[in-house]
Specification:
- It is a single chain.
- By secondary structure, the protein is an alpha+beta fold.
- The chain contains 5 helices and 6 strands.
- Strands 1, 2, 3, 4, 5 and 6 form a 6-stranded antiparallel beta sheet that branches.
- The longest helix is centred in the middle third of the chain and has 25 residues, at about 55-80.
- The protein is elongated, with a radius of gyration of 18 Å.
- The chain starts with a helix and ends with a strand.
Length: about 160
């Protein structure tokens, strides 16, 4: 079974939802993106976003967290049905990353993935490159992040 057969183009899969708390935003930002609008709620009021908001990298990490949990559950489900799940590897990269709206403390972001294409690698027998569109939407239905990604697959 190939990933594109399991999740054909046009099939957007919701992978999960993450609640962004002020504490989580500050903890992530202190370690990875220590800008004032990510680590200091009072200082953040004077910046363009008007309040404490998550780093874009934090919103992307939320996507990865939900995808890994979704994929692990999917593999277990397929195995219970006696099926062999596609063997996925690392990403070969991404492009067109967009942080479209700030993610504020209290926002719940629901993430999704859609496989849009897949091709065999000419230089690597038994390997395939899957192209995906990955998104995060807040509780108001607003798109907050989007990127095009890749994931390797092995026969």
């Amino acid at each position: 079974m190939r990933l594109i057969d399991l999740s054909p183009p046009g099939n957007r899969v919701v992978t999960g939802t993450v609640l962004f708390t002020a504490e989580d935003i500050i903890r992530f930002a202190r370690q990875f993106d220590p800008q004032p609008f990510h680590i200091d709620a009072e200082a953040a009021k004077d910046y363009v976003f008007g309040g404490l908001c998550a780093s874009g990298w934090h919103t992307c990490a939320g996507w990865m967290k939900t995808y890994v949990a979704y994929w692990n559950a999917k593999v277990a489900s397929l195995e219970r049905e006696g099926l062999v799940a596609p063997k996925l590897g690392p990403s070969a990269g991404f492009k067109k990353l967009q942080w479209l709206k700030p993610v504020y403390a209290g926002d719940e972001i629901t993430y999704s993935v859609e496989v849009v294409a897949s091709r065999s690698l000419a230089t690597r027998s038994g390997m395939h490159l899957n192209l995906t569109v990955n998104e995060g939407v807040n509780q108001k239905g607003e798109l907050v992040m989007r990127y095009e990604g890749t994931v390797l697959e092995f026969d």
